[in-house]
Amino acid sequence: MTSSVKKRPVSLICVSSLLAANVALSACQGSSTPSENMAVDNANAVTRNTDNMDGDIISNVMVGEDQATVKEMSAEEAMIHNLSRYRWTLISAADSSDQPLDTLMQITNQVRLSFNQHQGQNTLNYSVGCNTMSAVYQLQGSALTIEDSMSTKMSCGDLDKAENSLSQLMQGNSQLVFATGSDVFKDDTPILTQVTNDSATLVWEGKLTPQAKYNSKGEAVFWAVSADMVPCADSDAPTCLRVKPITYNNQGIKVSEGEWSVFTGEIDGYQHDSKHDEVLRLQRYRLSIVH
Fold first, then answer.
1. Contact 201, 176 (CB under 8 A)
2. Which of 2, 18, 89, 235 is the most exposed place for a label (fewest CB within 10 A)?
3. Which residues does 278 contact at the CB level (< 8 Å), separation at least 6?
4. Closest by Cα among 65, 59, 77 to 139
5. Model's pTM, two decimal places?
6. CA 136, CA 154: separation in Å to the nearest integer?
């Protein structure tokens, strides 16, 4: 590349997420042009400044469980199964005197919690939108015990105080109450109430993980997303994303890429960056079509 060419920086997002299409699956897998009838659900995003791909999909929840299998579980196993089917977003936080925890209440929509399984252990991840903290947990009845956590080490600036607060609250023992069908909340929205070791109360709202919603682990795909948006051809929206598929080998080296095309679907939870090109790691799921 000559020095006269100005290249925009590219940020890489490693996403545990959803790419769902209700068209024929071959239209997604066999074409270099992404289907226009897709939705993407963005979960834990980590920004990197490289074209090499490293890291695995974060979420690894139980999928494909039939009702008979669930009924055979113990109470703790059933609770763990239910918890892992959702990604949890904080909706309120109060101390032992029922006073709001302002550092968390100011950013509730970006405080997240997820329950997973990794190498046969029950694990959870939590974050305020900067570092991801992970820990092994035990569940006995409604008592949650969280062991020492590990964390990535990015500087979080204004989020440092909130991150430290959440980390301290999550350590030790908590009591959990899992509820659905509340009079206050929508019937299809579960609520998890967590009373921590120092009597603080965290209330979380659940959203089905894509694995649970589509009963599949999905297929990992990579999309480049241009910083520049373009006019939509057949959509009510004024502008749409420009995207193209990218393929990487096992060493994380880019081996091929498709052509740019206009994407008129949604990337649910993804915040478009109008200043930088991005590469997204996505999970693609096939929707069941009811005739």
1. no
2. 2
3. 10, 11, 12, 13, 224, 225, 227
4. 77
5. 0.65
6. 21
Question: Each residue of 133-169: pLDDT tens digit?
Answer: 999 999 999 999 998 889 988 888 999 999 999 999 9
The residues that bridge with 178 in the sheet, in sequence order, are 192
| Span 226-242, average pLDDT | 86
| Phi, psi (deg, nearest 5) at residue 105 | -65, -25
- Side chain identity, residue 11: S
Amino acid at 137: Y
Exposure string for 165-199, b = 16+ CB within 10 A, e = fewer: bbbebbbeebebebeeeeeebeeebbbbebbbeee
Token pair, residue 186, equals: 């929508």
Question: What mean pLDDT do residues 91-111 have?
Answer: 96
Query: What is the Cα Rg of the chain in Å?
Result: 21
CA angle 216–222–227, rounded 5-degree value = 130
3-state secondary structure the chain: CCCCCCCCCEEEEEECCEEEECCCHHHHHCCCCCCCCEEEECCCEEEECCCCCCCCCCCCCCCCCCHHHHHCCCHHHHHHHHHHCEEEEEEEEECCCCCECHHHHCCHHHCEEEEEEECCEEEEEEECCCCCEEEEEEEECCEEEECCCEECCCCCHHHHHHHHHHHHHHCEEEEEEEECCCCCCCCCCCEEEEECCCCCEEEEEEEECHHHHHCCCCEEEEEEECCCCEECCCCCCCEEEEEEEEEECCCCCEEEECCCEEECCEEECCCCCCCCEEEEEEEEEECCCCC
pLDDT at residue 13, rounded to an integer:
39
What is the spatial distance between Cα 116 and Cα 59, in angstroms, rounded to a whole number? 6
End-to-end CA distance of the chain: 52
